[in-house]
Design a protein that fits this description.
24% strand; alpha/beta
């Protein structure tokens, strides 16, 4: 299968350059590497162009989010004949042999639309594993996690969604399933894509024998953005895929979360969750970075 790799950059050229260089060391797969600069304001695009001449750089004038940025790379890769596109976070890494394992699953299982590895997460001194994702309608914590790898495992496991940290997408699947919904912007896009693919008969699988490494990104800004989008986008997902009664469930949860943070004196977190509730219930989706950052 002809492989492409899609990597997004947003004001983090060092991570992106390191990620591209890791992929460039592969000896057998030789994928086309597509880097999308998502409207960076720190000169990232110029640095990537200088240090990663082998990568095909797409410059977006605006930040199109996870879905929008990857849609640009996917469209370009498909025009160049890619049979599979590996979506790879710029703060993640995966060995060539593990990618080959994912490709083998696509080749042997025609119904597989999206496959991913187990993801080894590093959060300070803690190491744990993300084993795929559950349906995001019912629960807040939908990542299936374990402190260690299972001793015995099947060749693949069906999941509700494959995390976007590292996910191999079959190009042919996108003939029947529209690409990422850019209204999510950040968080929930993979769950939405996998759900729409499932309706069309495609499987979302994780492969225990393939491992990717990912370090958790910390910081007040990212925490605020994740708090906002992870809740707000539940409302979008429910509108598209579930009973509207779940809007009441998430409304009640939002109010409870807001009051919990207020009692703890965590005013910024409470504000982010309150904005998420207001925008989710009124249908204000897409990029809301400015509102989250500045109120």
């Amino acid at each position: 299968m002809k492989l492409a790799v899609a990597i997004l950059n947003w004001n983090s050229a060092d991570d992106t350059v390191s990620c591209v260089r890791n992929v460039s060391t592969w000896r057998n797969l030789h994928p086309h590497i597509w880097v999308v600069d998502n409207g960076s304001q720190d000169g990232s695009a110029a640095g990537i162009a200088e240090h990663c001449p082998a990568a095909r750089l797409i410059r977006s004038e605006t930040n199109r989010g996870f879905g929008g940025g990857n849609n640009l790379a996917i469209a370009a890769a498909r025009r160049q004949g890619a049979d599979a596109i590996l979506l790879l976070n710029n703060d993640a890494s995966i060995r060539e042999d593990d990618v080959a394992t994912l490709l083998a699953v696509l080749e042997k299982r025609p119904a597989a639309g999206i496959v991913g590895p187990f993801i080894r997460q590093r959060d300070g001194d803690r190491t744990y594993y993300s084993l795929g994702g559950r349906n995001i309608v019912g629960d807040y914590d939908t990542h299936i996690v374990s402190d260690r790898l299972p001793d015995v495992h099947p060749p693949f496991i069906a999941v509700d969604y494959v995390p976007g940290t590292a996910a191999l997408v079959r190009s042919a699947m996108l003939d029947s399933v529209e690409p990422f919904d850019e209204n999510y912007f950040f968080s929930g896009e993979m769950a939405d894509l996998c759900e729409r693919a499932r309706v069309k008969g495609w499987e979302a699988l994780v492969v225990p024998s393939a491992i990717a490494d990912h370090r958790d990104a910390a910081g007040a800004l990212r925490d605020s953005l994740y708090a906002y989008y992870s809740i707000r986008n539940r409302f979008l997902f429910v509108r598209k895929h579930a009973s509207r009664w779940y809007l009441l469930l998430w409304s009640a949860r939002c109010v409870r979360i807001v009051f919990r943070h207020l009692r703890r004196g965590q005013l910024n977190a409470a504000r982010c969750y309150w904005l998420a509730f207001l925008d989710g219930i009124t249908g204000r989706f897409g990029n809301q970075h400015a509102r989250v950052q500045h109120g």
